[in-house]
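Project outcomes to date are best conveyed with an example. Our students and postdoctoral researchers have been running inverse folding experiments weekly, and each run begins with a structure described purely in tokens. The record below, which covers 213 residues, was selected by the lab manager from last quarter's runs and is presented without edits.
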């Protein structure tokens, strides 16, 4: 068993997948979950962005099918099927454990892990054969940074920010140290917006923790 695991971050340019093209065309940022490849070669994409234009671009992209969009907390969430493979799959094939892909106006930031420097070399070589790539960060994964999979929660950035702010301010203390209005003020949003984000965030956490009981 290998004892060394590396957390890595790559910057990638030149990808031609639908999300990369939409990010470039809309001059937008897109946060994406790791794309999933089906046995028929099609790719399942799940992404979030504050730019509504991204949805219009994906909807008119001939490579995209079954596009679904919803808006929550000021962001658009999209799910779709793509006929175009993503460059990150070339990296996965040689050992990259992808956790997230962030698009910014066509440039991508891939965050994940590799087991050992020899695997890292293979990943860099595979990426360099298809796109422009630079290694932005390498750190050793310690036990304190290796949370169990069940503890990685799926929240929107706004929901996470609301939950963290409420926790830090003592909103969950008994009795409460602050009111909802006071936490909302620190976030620069209305009380109703804060409560909606908090409740949606709590609902998502509880569903992931306990299921749909």
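After processing, the design step wrote out the following sequence:
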């Amino acid at each position: 068993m290998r004892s060394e695991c590396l957390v890595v971050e790559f910057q990638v340019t030149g990808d031609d997948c639908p999300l990369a093209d939409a990010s470039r065309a809309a001059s937008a940022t897109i946060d994406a979950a790791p794309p999933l490849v089906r046995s028929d070669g099609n790719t399942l994409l799940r992404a979030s962005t504050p730019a509504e234009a991204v949805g219009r671009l994906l909807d008119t992209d001939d490579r995209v099918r079954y596009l679904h969009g919803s808006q929550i907390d000021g962001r658009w969430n999209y799910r779709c099927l793509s006929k175009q493979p993503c460059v990150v799959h070339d990296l996965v094939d040689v050992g990259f454990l992808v956790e997230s892909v962030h698009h910014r106006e066509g440039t991508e930031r891939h965050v994940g892990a590799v087991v050992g420097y020899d695997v890292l070399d293979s990943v860099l070589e595979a990426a360099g054969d298809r796109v422009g790539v630079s290694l932005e960060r390498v750190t050793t994964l310690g036990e304190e940074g290796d949370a169990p999979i069940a503890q990685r929660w799926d929240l929107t950035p706004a929901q996470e920010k609301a939950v963290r702010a409420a926790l830090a301010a003592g909103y969950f203390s008994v009795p409460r140290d602050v009111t909802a209005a006071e936490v909302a003020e620190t976030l620069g949003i209305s009380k109703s917006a804060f409560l909606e984000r908090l409740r949606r965030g709590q609902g998502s956490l509880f569903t992931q923790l306990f299921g749909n009981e």
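Strands lie at 6-13, 29-32, 36-37, 43-49, 64-72, 75-82, 97-104, 107-114, 132-140. The chain has seven helices and nine strands. The training component of this project remains on track.
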